[in-house]
Amino acid sequence: MDVNPTHGPLYIGDIEIRWLQGGFFHLDGGTMFGPVPKVLWQRRYAVDNDNLIPMCNDPLLVRTGDMNVLIDTGIGNKLNEKLRAIYKVTSSWDVPAQLIAAGLTRHDIDLVLLTHCDFDHAGGILMLTEEGEKELTFPEALHIIHKREWEDVKNPNSRAESTYLPENFDLLETSGRLELVEGETTLCPGITVFHSGGHTRGHQVVEIQSLESTAIHLGDLCPTHAHLNPLWVMAYDNFPLDVIARKEEYLKKYREKDSWFTFYHDPFVRACKLAADGTLTKTW
Asked: Is-above-0.90 flag for pTM?
């Protein structure tokens, strides 16, 4: 498989999905696959001699015809050199320019859906301008975060302090552009969020539906195609048994609908469909 496959948009009925360049880094493979032995996961996912695996952080631009929606925001342009070195960042966040290439600007985004608030998903909420000032990247957008997730952003435990970075949220809180949701919420025709928990306490997933077609974005419940096995969880998952239960539920439900499963972190497979035995029948 090629890293960062290039395709045109994926269509879910009348809804268009594009992946934007949100930054590329490398993470420890053992951490990403948790209890799964390396002899198994390395058959499914490339790894280098330092046990590092390639990971993108690419937001999904979802265009419904009436709304321009972004699912997660990439790593942003605020990471200091220490963090860039720790995470082996090799390709920078380029979402504003990617939007321009798609015929939009960052002011045209109507909704930003956060699956959760780890820095690699929420880092692009705020950006540094050329003058070094910090501002909302998408100033016209309503930012959708689950209420439990926001509670943990504001009062992180010792495990979360290093990933819920305050510099990603301070201006958002006072901007009037933050909306907290709970449970199942339809945000606009064709786009619904569901609380899942699992990876974090307030993690949520996104359903995209148009005409007779459906896609499900499982966020970090399923960061790559190699995590489609419900038992393959990450050491990063705060509640791994909940991740397993939610994946078993969602994989069965959406596989039976012949849905697309979309990914945020996977540089090899952007989206796929599944057979009853869990094998990939189509990839994007």
From this structure: yes
